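Structure representation.

___
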Amino acid sequence: MSTVREKVLVVDFGGQYTHLIARRCRELGVYSEIVDHSRLREVPLAEYSALILSGGPRSVYEPSAPQLDPSVIGAGIPVLGICYGHQLIAKALGGEVMRSERREYGRTRVIVEDEESVLFADLPRQQVVWMSHGDVVVRPPEGFRVVARSEYGLIAAMESKELPVFTVQFHPEVRHTEHGTKVLENFLRRGAGLRERWNPLDRVAEVIEEVRRSVPEGAGVLLGVSGGVDSITTAVVLHRAVGDRLHVVFVDHGLMREGEAEEVLEVLRSMGLKNVHFVDARSRFMNALRGLRDPEEKRKAIGALFVEVFKDVASRIGRIEYLAQGTIYPDRVESGATGTATSVIKSHHNVGGLPRELGLGLIEPLKDLYKDEVRQVARALGVPESVVRRHPFPGPGLAVRVMGEVTEEKLEVCRRASAIVEEELTRAGLYDQVWQAFAAVGDDRWVGVKGDEREEGRIVIVRVVTSEDGMTADWMRLDHDLLDRISRRITNEVPGVAMVCYAVSSKPPSTIEPC
């Protein structure tokens, strides 16, 4: 169990920036967790030092919109309401919310009216914030004072005179809000009185000790690594906890990036991991994928074969009692497994397509950390920078970047084109500025002209996105000359390609990966 005493609970009402709220709190040195609003009653609120209510897409006066029990506000726990949370607190405590004649979206100037405001302490009287709302609080609840208004005269922030309750109509968690981080810090440190300074490295030290205590002497731990920073960092953490009782399985399924298999093996050896089990299963995976076109069927086939491979390895090793995974916090949020202080080790947990029939306890040492926090831990543990900086890569590998049936020819197109995208971004000094960059290929074709002949070839889609955690993403506005170099190299160097397209849809509505 974590020894963190001061924790913030972020209640998710469906806002697109919920993860940013949690991340900003952690950046400010306060540990935070997220819980869906529908599960708030299941959470022991006494374990948390403060609550933050997120934004959301609904109107508080809609019959089916998420509501808030007023007792949560009166429990004495400091509360910050953001956007929908601001309106929800007003409605729950007897204020009035209505559709605004003037909607506010994007950058908006606000004017601080109360010099004694907690949220705006030590901040300019006028500042630019990021608004995104169509409803507005027109009458504050009894006991609340308006501390800031927008340039249009609408209520931008309120604070209670008696309770440690604060609300803002704007989004302090986004970078577009000029002093948003300071507003959040003022809530956490001044409004909620939090004093601890949380660091992800402290959590890792706790996990190592917890695993040492929980894994019986002689029991083995099995970990599959993909080559990404999550799984390799998990391997290093567990090796420090159980030593050579850790057995690392690296499966070459033939769906990796160019040169990745060789690089991963070299990294594992350089980190001092002795029990590395390499499995060349390329032909087995290609046979399992043959004829499959549906993305979900492909994922299931890959997951099922991974289980078979893991079973084979485990049976040869003997006394394997635990399965480890490089699960990180956004993975848990997307599966709904958040909001409570769960232990690191759980029995018979079904994650990532691994069924209960494995009969192993589960260890997830990084399950409380975001990707950037994992990278911070990895650097502290000495993981090579080439791994730390590597873009996230899906578990099913290139199978989710090959639309339709996975064939050797399409895999090679995808693999080589993706390498070109990464090479050109690196040369342009942009690789570290984007979240993911790759190429995808499907069955669509385009007629090209090479030399004096017409030749039908494949269409390659280049995808480059920026993101902070992968939950939302925006397409990267690349320089046209850079796009031109990528396109020319792919069509010239990758056989069978006639057209290169650039994906300009964000997440949402699109996903980052095509399948």
